[in-house]
Write a structure and sequence with these properties.
- The protein has 301 residues and is an all-alpha fold.
- Helix content is 67%, strand content 3%.
- It contains 13 helices and two strands; from the N terminus they run H-H-H-H-H-H-H-H-H-H-E-E-H-H-H.
- Strand 1 and strand 2 form a beta hairpin.
- Helix 4 runs parallel beside helix 12, helix 5 crosses helix 11 and helix 7 packs across helix 11.
- The longest helix is centred in the C-terminal third of the chain and has 26 residues.
């Protein structure tokens, strides 16, 4: 840690004659090696006069421009785009309530096209272990647990609450006992996010796709955005802990938020919704394959 404290101070004191952080260089080199240097292919968008749509697209451009260097910045920019546009179409100022309200609509859109549902499920099935660990630690905090267990009206979903409480009670947030606590607890979360049911202590909990989206949007994405915006953790690109696994967390958060944002735009702007949803499924599959090639084994670390 002391070496990185010195390195960060030297970096700013010597600017612009700096020595780059190794993890950033490793990520950039790997990024350039995938699909001829373009591992991310944007979904084709349409021209529209809507003020908030155009504001959101401007931040989407920032997100795409940052992706080859700092995926954490890409996530921040795409979340801003999502926030701007979702607020304009739902007219709910408080984002926690807005997330709860729009989740069933996103679920309905995704499930309206079999290929799109399969593409989203495949994307979720490749959530990095680092992201699962982040979510696992998060749901041990009452505020994040509370956000993850509400329905579209902001009322408590008893099944989801019981399920996540069972995760908490069976697997403590104990880094000193990582192999028997955080690792199996986060793997249980993987099954919660990818399976239709899980059995814990002889009890079977049924899980809907809507449950999974609530946990991902309100528990994972929104919490990660808050921790980033409020400075709850050190910048992931300037930390001694930074590696391809931490980069994968930001990249996955970017991808998931990007596609939820696109769903909203298709739902409210598209003139051919069924075709656009079909095209979106293809785009998810394309970018998911490149994402898997980019991070490889880092997704499981």
């Amino acid at each position: 840690m002391a070496d990185f404290k010195t390195k960060r101070i030297e970096y700013i004191n010597n600017w612009p004659n700096i020595k780059r952080f190794e993890a950033e260089l490793q990520y950039e080199e790997k990024f350039r090696s995938i699909n001829n240097g373009t591992p991310f292919i944007p979904f084709k968008m349409v021209v529209d006069n809507n003020e908030f749509y155009n504001k959101a697209v401007s931040f989407l451009i920032d997100a795409v421009e940052s992706l080859g260097h700092k995926p954490n910045h890409s996530f921040e920019f795409i979340f801003t785009a999502y926030d701007i546009y979702s607020k304009s179409v739902y007219s709910i100022n408080r984002i926690t309530n807005r997330n709860w309200r729009l989740t069933p609509d996103l679920c309905t859109l995704i499930e309206s096209d079999t290929n799109l549902k399969n593409a989203f499920s495949n994307l979720i099935s490749h959530i990095p272990q680092k992201s699962l660990q982040y979510l696992f630690v998060g749901i041990h905090k009452s505020q994040i647990l509370d956000r993850s267990t509400k329905n579209s009206l902001g009322a408590e979903d008893s099944n989801r609450l019981a399920l996540l409480n069972k995760v908490n009670s069976n697997y403590p947030n104990d880094f000193a006992n990582y192999a028997n606590a955080i690792r199996p607890g986060s793997r249980l979360l993987y099954h919660i996010l990818t399976d239709s049911s899980v059995s814990i202590d002889s009890l079977t909990y049924h899980i809907s796709f809507e449950d999974q989206l609530h946990i991902l949007l309100s528990g994972y994405i929104y919490s990660l955005r808050n921790d980033t915006a409020h400075g709850s953790a050190i910048s992931i690109t300037k930390s001694s802990m930074t590696n391809m696994a931490t980069m994968a967390n930001s990249y996955f958060a970017f991808l998931l938020t990007y596609y939820l944002f696109l769903l909203l735009t298709i739902d409210h702007i598209s003139n051919n919704k069924s075709q656009d949803l079909a095209n979106l499924a293809q785009n998810i599959t394309l970018n998911l394959n490149n994402y898997i090639n980019l991070f490889g084994h880092a997704l499981s670390k």
